[in-house]
Amino acid sequence: MEAKDVQEQMRLLKELQDIDTAAQKIRLDRRQLEKELGGLDAEVERVSVMVTGLRESLEALQAERRELGHALTQERDHVARAESRLPAIKTQKEYIAVLKEVDTAKKMNRDIEERIKGKDAEIAALDQDRLEKEKELAEQQAEAAARRAHIEARLAEIDATLAAREAERVAIAEQIPLVTRKRYQTLLDRRGGIAVVEARQGACQGCHMQLPPQVFNSLFRQEEVMSCPHCHRLIFLIRQ
Ligand SMILES: [Zn+2]
Separation of 71 CA from ligand 1 center, angstroms? Predict the structure, then answer.
């Protein structure tokens, strides 16, 4: 192979490597954005579950509060009925018994009233929590929607860039002989996305091993596309 052909092939391979390196980075960004997109839902979902939990607890407390209300009404009726019997009572013994009944019922009422007060305070505190969490949820939903729109626009941009890069890549790859192109692709897959590297100061910049002098000499003469004997990456020399 003539030196100028080797030079041209290496130039094309380096270009291919640049495009592939850039595309790898873009794809990595893309994956991160997609991951973030998935995470957005999870965070909103987490707060949403908390809001649902608070609403359910609140409903349970309100049901308990209603029961106490009914109990209080019943107990007040009980007092009123007992007191209404008093004027018609004939014996002192019966009178005392009814007074005692009224007294017990009133005591019960005070107890229920205390429990209602406690329940109302609990409901008020929980309702405050619910309002705060609902506000947080609304804010998060708005934030997530804005972020989602941003990410989706960014993903569309990335896909357009990748498509353009792919077209460039195909145009360049077509100019490289199939056998070299295959070698490049295999290396790209097996060597962490880096197939073409510089040979600098006697060493391969891919694996950092020293290159034998005869490899360097061949590289210098540009008789063929050269590989590092250690990592097999395609190597090129930058002439000073
Ligand atoms: Zn190497």
Answer: 86
Taking the C-alpha atoms of residue 171 and residue 220, their distance in angstroms, rounded to an integer, is 28
CA of 169 to the centre of ligand 1 (A): 24
Q: Which domains does the chain have, with CATH numbers?
A: 30-174 (1.10.287.1490)
Q: What pTM does this model have?
A: 0.70
Instruction: Tell how far the Cα of 15 is from the centroid of ligand 1, in angstroms.
Output: 19
CB under 8 Å to 202, separation ≥6 — which residues? 210, 211, 216
Contact status, residue 222 vs residue 3, Cβ threshold 8 Å: yes
Distance 193 CA to ligand 1 centre (A): 14
pLDDT in tens, 31-87: 999 999 988 888 899 999 999 999 999 999 999 999 999 999 999 999 999 999 999
User: How far, in Å, from the CA of 195 to the mean position of ligand 1?
Assistant: 10
From residue 156, alpha-carbon distances to 30, 32, 161, 216, 230 in Å are 10, 14, 9, 45, 41
Helix (H, G, I), strand (E, B) or coil at 240: coil
**What would the two tokens of residue 134 be?**
């609902």
Distance of CA 218 to the CA centre of its chain: 52
Q: How far is the CA of 198 from the centre of ligand 1 (A)?
A: 9
Q: Measure 236 CA to ligand 1 centroid, in angstroms.
A: 11
Query: What is the per-residue pLDDT for 208?
Result: 97
pLDDT in tens, 81-127: 999 999 999 999 999 999 999 999 999 999 999 999 999 999 999 99
Q: Cα of 206 to ligand 1 centre, how many Å? A: 5
